[in-house]
Structure formats: C-alpha cells, structure tokens
Amino acid sequence: MAEVINDWQFVEAVMAARTLEEVAQVNRRAMRAMGFNHGAYVLKRPVPAPRADTPAQDALVFFHDLPPAWARTRYESLRSSAGEQADARVQHVRAGMPATAWSWLGQVSHTRADIGQRARGLLRSAGEHGLKAGLTVPLWTPGIDWAFMTLTTDATADLRELRATLAPMNYFASCLHSTVRRLQGDAKVPVLSARQREVLHWVAVGKSTWEISEILHISERTVYFHLVGAARKLDTQGRTATCARALALGLLTP
Questions:
Q1: Whose CB among 14, 33, 106, 235 lies 3.0–4.6 Å from 26's, allowing a Cys bridge?
Q2: pTM
Q3: What is the pLDDT of residues 116-141, one digit of tens each?
Q4: In what order do the strands lie in the sheet with 146-153?
C-alpha cells in the first residue's frame, strides 16, 4: 500500500469541485495515491412520486471505476428494495457501524457478526473479480436513506495494512459526500459563530481538545461546548463529520 495522504490536496480539490464528474475524477486520484485500484460512491435518497409533466428522478447517485461486471451485479441491484435489504454493505451502514476494512478471504473489521457472516458471499465474489481487499466507509447526512464509499486493492489482503488508511480515507469520504450533497442542492448553509469556526479549524488540522484549549486560552469544557454547538447546527455527529461538512460548505478554510 502507498503512504498515507498527509496533506490537504485532495480535500481541497474535492471541496472545490463544481460537477459530479469533477468529484469522481478527484476521487480516482485520491484513491490511487493511497494505493487503491478501484472505488465507488453510492447514495440512495428518497425521491417524490413523479408528476405527469416531469421525468422520474433517479434514487441513486452512483459513480465508480469498478470492473463493469461487478458494478452491474453488485451496485445496479441496489436500485431495488429487495437488493438493498439483502446487501451486507447497506446493512452495515444502517446498523450505524464505522468504516471497515475487509478482504476476499472473509475477514471484516468493525461490523456485527451477523453482517460479517452475510458479507462472505459478497467478498468471495469480489475476489473473483480481482478485488482482493478494501475499505467501506458509511456516510450519513440528513435527508438520505444511506450512502457509502468503497475502495479496493489487488495488492494485499492484509487488514493490518489497510487499517492505516481508514482514518484519512474516512475524512476524505466525508468531504466528498458533503460536496455531492451541495452539488445536488441539498445542503443548507448554517451560520457558525467565530469561536465555533476557530475550534473546528484546529480540529481539522489534528489538534486535540486539550491542545485547542491551550491555543485559544479557554477550558476544555468550553472547546467541547463549541464543538457540540457546531455539530448541532450542521446536523452531524462526531468531530470528523462536523469538520468535513463545515469544510464542504465553505465555512472553514483548509
């Protein structure tokens, strides 16, 4: 696997994207830099019943550079209710599980035992298409049914190597997802206070709560208070998702 990304180039590029095609292009560059061969992003959103004078909206937002046969078999099926209910990746997302590493040998980290068991057939099929291992990153924002990003590699099946990429790719995927939502016109921009922006800026560059309190000369409790307030305004959970959404909405400067 390649060295872990340690700068903002891909985060900045994906946040600046003006079309879904630009987002997909940045995603391809980012995953190559991390040592992955293929990847996909898929979002399922509720759509209103079509009117007689308007075309029906597609419930799926989907882009990928996967082997075509795999994409047809394992992603197009997600358009149906039966397909998504039977899919271990969707179950993993809906169960509120974190980003996970997996291999075609049936190994899955950070998921429920029943979901891991159900995923074995999917993983064997992935291996048959040359997708030996990878990451799956669940993504959440209001107003969607579910979303996730998957990155795959044929270079290793060792989960220990893949785990080093979980954190940076989780953050990148959160930024990408927020940008997709913005491009769809689904993102409402809240107003953060100056202090909330300051705290999120230091979180985004990797500072701990204690370090931020020392930098801003405030208590750790006050830092936490501003993080909670920003998350509430952005309708997110966790520091990573809150920073990613604020960056994608242009509320922070990387």
A1: 14
A2: 0.74
A3: 999 999 999 999 999 999 999 999 87
A4: 60-64, 38-44, 146-153, 133-139, 100-103
